[in-house]
Amino acid sequence: MKTVLPGGTIGILGGGQLGRMMALSARTLGFQVQALDPDPACPARWVVDQCYTADFGDTRAAAQLARACDVVTLEIEKIPLASLRAAAEQAPLRPSAAVLEMVQHRGRQKAWLAKQGFPLGPWQELNGAAELGTAVAALGGKCFVKSCEGGYDGRGQVVVKAATEAGQAWKDLGESAVVAEATLDLESELSVLVARSPKGETVVYPPAYNHHEERILAWSLLPGPVPPQVAAKAAEIARDMANALQVEGLLVVEMFLLKDGRLLVNELAPRPHNSFHATEVACLTSQFEQAVRAVCNLPLGSVEVVRPAAIVNLLGDLWLTEGGPRFEQVLAMPGVRLHLYGKRDARKGRKMGHLSAVGTTPEEALARVKAASRALGM
């Protein structure tokens, strides 16, 4: 149960915006940081000591990274298991390859959740168009169909409104294993972040309230405006899940709050999460510092919300408009901050950064960040 003290070196598999922000927090705590990413211009490259440009499936590169580090973690769960195991032979890997093996496959993930007794909506795993058609009919005629592997920010999933659409959905998703989920009567979408250290210490952040557009997170509010009993139950589910998985690091549990008051688990992410970016301005300990503390087996930080906050994602669409974004307008707005990820290539739907805003109430924070997004023409 190795503890890595400030001055040590942390390796990050993945150099996207989450790796970048984790690296910046690690630097504040006095750590050295190395990263591995296939993109030679990945966001983390400009803030780490060493960045290896290699495919995530390159086991030799993963081992090389780990040999130079005291502990290895990740910012994206799509790292091949062979690379995770190669890294784990050289340094402690937190979270473990076993956690990732379950999370990476939606069918395995849901089967594990069901076996452990965590609440799920109706679902089925399917391996063919005919099976999918039968399942869609059995699940009520309208379903969300998702690839078991891959998919991110709305990719790798389609909405099927009738069994007759199953064949096309099967083709669109690559004719590989899928999970079909019944449509639910939602009140809201929440997420809960739990941090767990190798010695078993856990802390749980209040639930974030999330709003999606075209299946991509548009804005998030912390703390979410939910009844205290709902927040307590969500925290209990997330903590129990992290302990059952023996997670070392972070675990985000996406949940559905139904109109009848039930909480159901949607998906898991064993890494920092878009819906908790507000912790940078809302909480005593951001999710990125907490990730560093957890994987290094250091005491976990306070999750107290000092002031409510909200975030709005900035997508590449904004950069494609004439003249591009006019950030000076939002920087003049009280309580609003700009967070850019250092990405060089703006594309439609690509997350380029986010705005955050604080307020005396969650509602005020949300109103401020929405006003700032309107000022940018969103």
UniProtKB/TrEMBL annotation:
GO cellular component, one term: cytosol
The protein's enzyme class: ligase
Residues that hold ATP according to the record: 106, 146, 151-157, 181-184, 189, 212, 266-267
Molecular function as annotated in GO: 5-(carboxyamino)imidazole ribonucleotide synthase activity; ATP binding; metal ion binding; phosphoribosylaminoimidazole carboxylase activity
Catalytic function, reaction form: 5-amino-1-(5-phospho-beta-D-ribosyl)imidazole + hydrogencarbonate + ATP = 5-carboxyamino-1-(5-phospho-D-ribosyl)imidazole + ADP + phosphate + 2 H(+)
EC number(s) on file: 6.3.4.18
Domain of life: Bacteria
Pathway involvement of the protein, from the record: Purine metabolism; IMP biosynthesis via de novo pathway; 5-amino-1-(5-phospho-D-ribosyl)imidazole-4-carboxylate from 5-amino-1-(5-phospho-D-ribosyl)imidazole (N5-CAIR route): step 1/2
Record key words, sorted: ATP-binding, Ligase, Nucleotide-binding, Purine biosynthesis
ATP-grasp domain location: 110-296
GO biological process, one term: 'de novo' IMP biosynthetic process
UniProt family annotation: Belongs to the PurK/PurT family.
Function recorded in the entry: Catalyzes the ATP-dependent conversion of 5-aminoimidazole ribonucleotide (AIR) and HCO(3)(-) to N5-carboxyaminoimidazole ribonucleotide (N5-CAIR).
Complex formation: Homodimer.
Name of the protein described by the UniProt record: N5-carboxyaminoimidazole ribonucleotide synthase
Organism of provenance: Hyalangium minutum
Encoding gene, per UniProt annotation: purK
